[in-house]
Write a structure and sequence with these properties.
The protein is α+β, with helices and mostly antiparallel strands. The chain contains three helices and four strands. A four-stranded antiparallel beta sheet has the order 1-2-3-4, covered by helices on one side. Helix 2 packs antiparallel against helix 3.
Length: 181
């Protein structure tokens, strides 16, 4: 009888409760930490592709010859592609994963600028649109013409045990810059 009381006392105690609590809480903590890491990486990639698009737009909008008079000679499309690729490669992003963006909805600059928006895709699927009217939503200001650079980049979550595991999200980047002679 004494032995049975001792066993009942040990089973009724809380000696193993800490192990059970850790077994329940630890997976949740690790899932939370893993989520922070992967969402942080997604934000880092988004920031990098936005910077790459901005650098591409700046390169496309700046004249390559400042002393050429009325025909300033804007850089070739390969120069813009190289500017975008340089920023992405600096963050170890694969430029071959760049996807073309959807159809741009841009307005052409009003006269006396050349008519029509000229959009060209680079070798890495970066869309460069020149002669775009950048401030058409503000009719009180004089029109500003420039370039718009846009593309998309895929990101895959590796988040085991959740519905986000191996889900692919396509991040979009778009930047614009005024033409300057």
């Amino acid at each position: 009888m004494l032995k049975a009381k001792r066993i009942a006392c040990q089973l009724g105690g809380t000696n193993g409760a800490e192990i059970a609590e850790v077994a329940l809480v630890l997976p949740l903590v690790f899932t939370l930490l893993l989520g922070i890491v992967w969402f942080g990486r997604a934000f880092n990639i988004y920031s990098t592709i936005q910077q790459a698009a901005q650098q591409g737009a700046i390169t496309a909008a700046r004249a390559s010859c400042a002393t050429c008079g009325t025909n300033p000679g804007f850089p070739a499309i390969t120069t813009v592609d190289s500017a975008v690729a340089a920023v992405m490669q600096a963050s170890n992003l694969n430029v071959n994963q760049i996807q073309p963006p959807g159809a741009p909805s841009l307005l052409a600059c009003p006269q006396p600028a050349p008519s029509g928006v000229a959009c060209t895709a680079t070798a890495h699927n970066v869309m460069v649109c020149s002669n775009a009217w950048l401030n058409f939503t503000v009719p009180s200001q004089p029109p500003q013409c420039g370039t718009v650079v846009s593309f998309q980049y895929p990101f895959t979550f590796y988040f085991p045990g959740t519905s986000l595991n191996l889900q692919q999200v396509v991040l979009s980047a778009q930047a614009q810059s005024r033409m300057e002679n």
